[in-house]
């Protein structure tokens, strides 16, 4: 009899011990991350080949007061909804990643109590002292930050780019000269000496002709080099401007 009573007490103690965890597991489907809102956001790029860190986007963001800049403070707001009939105590984490590296000192971890069928809004300031591509996401944990209850859905993270002084200078150089940029280094285009032979003029006589009539072409090829050029081969094509893909070779 004593053993049966002892087993009942132990079993009851185990249930009481794991009751908060069981309740959290039951309540987690009732939680929802409504949104992540930023105080400073740049307009979305208006071209298929543009990104938020493309040279054109960087230059446009320099004079736009709505765009986040180096040294600014970004205010992040998220809302956690509790659809359950009882209040829930949770831990809210705002994760900050810059260039795929998590910056834990810039993030937030705080415990909140969300009333039944209520929404709690969380505000967090981020000092934009590090340039790069920022990613903001939210996690909701149990009150002891041991188990994740809900995470930001893939694709719902918020991104913004903070350009450094070097990024701005590289973007200006690329847009001004048309050079390509790889990472932070400017790659200058290949440069060649001007050709010795170049077409000086092309004349078509007469300018208008009917079907079956002959045309005369006068091509003036100029030798700008210092050597004599022999055995020159030229290829001449013509086409109707309304059908540019149907080219015919004349000579």
Task: Summarize the structure in words.
This protein has 251 residues and is α+β, with helices and mostly antiparallel strands. It has helices spanning 2-27, 55-62, 165-177; strands at 31-38, 73-82, 88-98, 101-102, 108-114, 118-127, 132-142, 148-151, 158-162, 180-182, 185-187, 197-205, 216-223, 237-240, 243-249. Helix content is 19%, strand content 41%. It comes from SAR324 cluster bacterium. This is CARDB domain-containing protein.
- How many distinct folded domains? 2
Model regions low in confidence, pLDDT < 50 over at least 5 residues: 14-27, 181-186
Instruction: Write the CATH fold name of the largest domain.
Output: Coagulation Factor XIII, Chain A, domain 1
In the CATH hierarchy, the architecture of the largest domain is: Distorted Sandwich
Q: The biggest beta sheet, please?
A: 6 strands, antiparallel
Helix content: 10-25%
Shape: elongated
């Amino acid at each position: 009899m004593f053993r049966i009573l002892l087993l009942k007490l132990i079993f009851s103690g185990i249930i009481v011990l794991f009751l908060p965890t069981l309740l959290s597991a039951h309540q987690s489907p009732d939680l929802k991350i409504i949104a992540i809102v930023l105080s400073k956001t740049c307009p979305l790029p208006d071209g298929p080949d543009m990104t938020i860190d493309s040279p054109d986007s960087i230059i446009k963001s320099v004079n736009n007061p709505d765009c986040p800049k180096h040294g600014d403070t970004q205010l992040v707001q998220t809302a956690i909804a509790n659809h359950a009939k009882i209040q829930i105590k949770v831990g809210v984490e705002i994760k900050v990643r810059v260039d795929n590296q998590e910056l834990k000192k810039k993030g937030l971890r705080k415990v909140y109590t969300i009333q039944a069928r209520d929404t709690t809004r969380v505000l967090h300031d981020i000092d934009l002292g590090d340039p790069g591509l920022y990613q903001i996401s939210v996690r909701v944990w149990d009150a002891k930050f041991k188990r994740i209850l809900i995470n930001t859905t893939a694709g719902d993270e918020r991104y913004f780019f903070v350009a450094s002084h070097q990024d701005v200078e590289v973007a200006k150089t690329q847009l001004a000269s048309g050079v390509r940029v790889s990472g932070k280094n400017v790659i200058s285009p290949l440069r060649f000496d001007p050709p010795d032979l170049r077409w000086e003029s092309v004349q078509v006589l007469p300018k208008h002709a009917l079907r079956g009539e002959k045309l005369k072409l006068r091509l003036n090829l100029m030798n700008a080099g210092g050597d004599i050029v022999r055995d020159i081969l030229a290829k001449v094509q013509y086409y109707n401007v309304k059908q540019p893909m149907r080219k015919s070779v004349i000579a």
